Amino acid sequence: MKPGILVISHGSREAEWVRLVDEAVAAAAASPRVQGVPVYSSFLEIVEGRLIQDGIDALEEQGVTDLFVLPLFLSSGSTHVDEIGQAFGLPPVAELEGDLGIFRVNAKVHYGMPIDDDPDIAELLLSNIKPLSVQPEEETVMLIAHGSREKVFHERWQHGLNQLAERLRKLGGFAHSATAMLLPDQAADHLRALQEERPNEAVIVVPLFLSKGYFTNTVIPSRLKGLDYRYNGQAMLPHPAIERWLERRMTAWLQDR
Fold first, then answer.
1. Rounded Cα–Cα distance for residues 157 and 48 (Å)
2. For burial by CB atoms within 10 Å, which of 3, 21, 248, 255 has the most?
3. Are 77 and 154 in contact, with CB atoms under 8 Å apart?
4. Rg from Cα positions in the chain
5. Considering only CA atoms, which of 166, 167, 147 is closest in space to residue 158?
6. Which residue from 83, 76, 88 is spatially nearest to 45, judged by alpha carbons?
7. Smallest Cα–Cα separation from 9: which of 40, 44, 46, 39?
8. Would you say residue 98 has pLDDT above 90?
9. CA–CA–CA angle 113, 73, 55 (5° rounding)
10. Distance (Å, rounded) from C-alpha 55 to C-alpha 53?
11. Mean of the pLDDT values across residues 31-60?
12. Element (H, E) at 250
């Protein structure tokens, strides 16, 4: 049996977004414990010629018979993670049916998990907001992520966000942690509630997005317009923590085979 790894991320019309993802995947694939195993960086949508089926075909052309599918998404609450799983023949986690159809794949498929909560990611977020922190014992960190209105997916988002926010709080020595989703629109209400409950603490808003773009630059600032908070819009890429996460997931699967 020949192993191969298919990394799947969302995709973007911005070439820089695609480049940052590709560089992180390439760095993980070049690590000594992964080197020699075919790795393909694919995208759910937008990036023509690099879509999921393209990746499957390219890996199988290299003789891959044992395929590890690794979703480079932030939460198991992402509907995209579920619809990709459905397209590989896995049962849906809710009644929401994906529209990707079924992929053509001959290899035996092993479907991995997205990021959710992770020590390396907490360290990444802390490094992103370090310039904003003055006295962490008098500050609250509030993670803001995309989220979902669908009940099962919303609960999964919330669980992962709560764990990651608390990990970040402990790591940075902050007074308090909180979370909010953009879908449903919680950000402003949650920030106002925080400021009423903890008026003596500054709030540092931490965006949980893989790369800078529309959500970090426009949506979050517009949702929080007129409110008092600290924010630099720093996203997760580029950062070696993403490479380390990818490498750990890849090597763990290769060792468990």
1. 29
2. 21
3. yes
4. 19
5. 147
6. 83
7. 44
8. no
9. 85
10. 5
11. 94
12. helix 240-256
